[in-house]
Amino acid sequence: MNDGLIPARYAKALYLVACEKQADKKLYSTMKLMEESFRNEPGLQPVLANPYVAADDKIALLKSAAGVADADSPVFSDFLKLLARNRRLDMARGIANAYIDLYRRENNIYDVKIVSAAKLGDAELQRLHNLIKNHLNGGSMELTTSVDPDLIGGFTVSVGNERIDASVSNELKQLRLNLISK
């Protein structure tokens, strides 16, 4: 079966249960924390895929990665037990990503990334924030910024699948392509 389909189905079921128990927002934060742990610790996924590691140890590892205790999030704890019973703990990251995407879609939240050649000042960042907010038609955003000196100057903005590239490196690339095509 498709690896993207299974996590999406689990995420949808988890979202419905979390909404029913009014724990969807808290679970969203938990899933974001867990995804960050996967990103920061590449050795986490191989441990979950290892058949010689006990399911209880994998559950404890995932709870630790998500910063959760049983009393903090019974929905998350029960969900991990379900994954263990179904031998799907190795899909925890895919399910977390699918849950994050589903929650954002259902709550009109956009993941916005701004990459600039140098650190943006508060005024510049506020101006970009306002321009992006107008573009979102009432949706809210989770904004992350980073610096990439390879851009030479300018910035790029990514909102979901859309990307605006106002960097000097892109302008040079376009100029080069125009010169080559003539």
What does this protein structure show overall?
There is one protein chain. The chain has 182 residues and is of the alpha+beta class. It has eight helices and four strands, in the order H-H-H-H-H-H-E-H-E-E-E-H. The protein has helices at 5-20, 24-40, 44-49, 55-66, 74-85, 92-106, 122-135, 168-181, and strands spanning 109-116, 140-147, 154-159, 162-167. Helix 1 crosses helix 6, helix 2 packs across helix 4 and helix 4 (55-66) runs antiparallel to helix 5 (74-85). The radius of gyration is 20 Å and the shape is elongated.
Protein traits:
elongated; 8 helices; alpha+beta; four-stranded mixed β-sheet; 182 residues; 4 strands
- Number of helical runs? 8
Distance between the termini: 49 Å
Outline type: elongated
Side-by-side strand order of the widest sheet: 2-1-3-4
Q: Report the uncertain regions.
A: none
- Please provide the ordered H/E string of secondary-structure elements: HHHHHHEHEEEH
Q: What structural class is derived from the secondary structure elements?
A: alpha+beta
- Write down the overall mean pLDDT: 90
Biggest sheet statistics: 4 strands, mixed
Number of strands: 4
Proportion in helices? 55-70%
Strand content: 15-25%
Radius of gyration: 20 Å
SSE inventory with pairings:
Blueprint: H1 5-20, H2 24-40, H3 44-49, H4 55-66, H5 74-85, H6 92-106, E1 109-116, H7 122-135, E2 140-147, E3 154-159, E4 162-167, H8 168-181
Parallel strand pairs: 1-2
Antiparallel strand pairs: 1-3, 3-4
